[in-house]
Amino acid sequence: MKIIIKENQYKKLLETITNDDEKTHIGDRVMVYYNLHKHTFSVTYNGRVITHADYVKLVDVEFRVRQGGREKVLTDKRKNVHSFVIGTLVDYCAYPCEDMPTEPNNNIVTYNPYKYNSFVMKDTEEPIYKADIVKMINSKNKIFIIN
Q: Whole-model pTM?
């Protein structure tokens, strides 16, 4: 059996393999979401999952909720991926991570589509949209702002 692909498809395939798979993406702007099926974080770059991680550290962070996705959750009563933490990747520990950092007890960020339309500080329920440094740790409390 012979598989035929066009030259531009072949070049794109080679470019993807050599650039993304060998790259750590440290210093790149990534988008991270909690993967409900794998129970860990999915880290995406240019719309493509580059790794699954139990620990992710980001700087220059933005918390984003796609309202259309949230409305679908409210209508269907079924979760979907529509909330993201976006930032510059500083560090991560791929899934399964055996050397997880300890979880701080304060500055916890949470999001519940049934209660909030944005990410909020867990203790005050104040909306939060940006942070300088965030550590995402795959345990009970998942997102922490580090000052």
A: 0.82
Neighbour-count burial of 24, counting CB atoms closer than 10 A to its CB (0-12 exposed, 13-18 middle, 19+ buried): exposed
pLDDT value, residue 139: 86
Give the burial string for 69-91 (b: 16+ CB within 10 Å, else e): ebebbeeeeeeeebbbbbbebee
- C-alpha 57/C-alpha 90 separation (Å) is 6
- Tell me what the mean pLDDT of segment 89-117 comes to: 91
Closest residue by Cα to residue 136 from 35, 62, 52, 58: 58
Q: What residues are paired with 130 via a beta bridge?
A: 62
Q: Report the pLDDT averaged over residues 35-51.
A: 94
**Omega of the bond leading into 127 within 30 degrees of 0 (cis):** no
